[in-house]
Specification:
heterodimer, A: alpha+beta, 4 helices, globular, B: 89 residues, 5-stranded mixed beta sheet
């Protein structure tokens, strides 16, 4: 079975509730839908109030990296539908950065596919993330925990 | 002689790599090119402001919109981009 995979590299704000509603409508007949929304936190890593989170991307390789991750998730889990939407540009605190939804006949595949896609997006999707606050700007790179989470899927 | 003259390559920089000198820097490369790993080392030498980030992190190269291995040969006229560690989500 081949899942319907949709990958979007969004410039403007994304609305997770609207995305989930549209996804659920497209995935009619599925027995389970799981979704994840990643949000810009209100504070930078040093605790200062965040003025903006900047997501930089590449004109072609960013979307290609997201498509590769989404296709791997669709190949690995028994899904009917998968949606990966990721913003780039300046993102205000509280706004959504990323939205992933998976539909499947049964819940485990849907949960796992979302978890897997997020672990790989954190470490492999071609984005560069910068926190801007009153105390300055700081580029954010994946933590050891992020790398461990992505690597753990290879051992399963 | 023109056949041995170095070519000027424009290298596009992403993320923290663009902070010191901006999005694009120039690098003179041999007419027969050089590997991606050698290009990164040569760029650190030619532009010392970039050296700390180029040498302290794993930098990947994109050539003509494809991610390449460190031993991939880059030739005059290629479109080259350098990527510091990525982070989505």
């Amino acid at each position: 079975m081949s899942a319907a995979v949709t990958v979007e590299h969004a410039v403007g704000a994304i609305d997770p509730a609207a995305l989930l509603a549209a996804f659920a409508a497209s995935a009619s007949g599925a027995g389970a839908i799981a979704s994840f929304t990643g949000l810009a936190r209100p504070t930078a890593q040093d605790g200062a109030a965040l003025t903006a989170l900047i997501l930089e991307s590449h004109a072609t390789l960013t979307l290609a990296s997201m498509q590769a991750i989404a296709q791997d998730a669709a190949n690995r889990f028994a899904l009917t539908h998968l949606l990966v939407t990721h913003r780039h540009g300046p993102i205000a605190p509280g706004e959504a950065i990323v939205f992933v939804a998976a539909a499947a006949a049964h819940r485990r595949a849907a949960f796992d596919a979302v978890d897997y896609a997020m672990d790989r997006l954190k470490t492999e999707a071609i984005f560069w993330k910068r926190e801007d606050s009153k105390t300055g700007s700081q580029w954010i790179e994946p933590t050891n925990a992020d790398h461990a989470a992505a690597a753990a899927w290879e051992k399963l | 002689m023109a056949t041995t003259a170095a070519s000027l390559l424009t290298v596009e920089l992403y993320g923290r790599l663009a902070d010191p000198l901006g999005r694009e820097v120039a690098l003179a490369i041999p007419p027969d090119g050089l590997t991606a790993a050698t290009l990164i080392a040569a760029l650190a030498t030619a532009h010392p402001a970039l050296a700390p980030d180029l040498t302290s992190r794993r930098i990947r190269a994109g050539v003509n919109d494809v991610l390449v291995a460190p031993d991939t040969r880059i030739r005059p006229g290629d479109r080259v981009a350098l990527f510091p560690p990525v982070s989505g989500g």
